[in-house]
Task: structure prediction
Amino acid sequence: MRYDVDEEPADNLQVVVHRVGRRRVGLVVDRIQDIVEERLDLAPASRRCVLGSVVVHGRVTEVVDLPAVLDAAGVNESSLLAAATW
Result:
């Protein structure tokens, strides 16, 4: 995932929304490959913030560890509450 500030804004944004405590946070992504609501048999990951990989529609796809990404960015319930009060 990447965010380039010099890029022209897209007509549509794809956003993954995650609950952190009682708050919600959105993460803009390049593309949502698939939405899976079942248990995945993941191959182990060797990279930080990745839960593992799985084959989706015939392609190897990394599954993001969203809580780890948010933690690495310093996003937690306290920081969300502080941001909401300014």
Q: What stands out?
A: Residues 77-85 form the longest helix (9 residues).
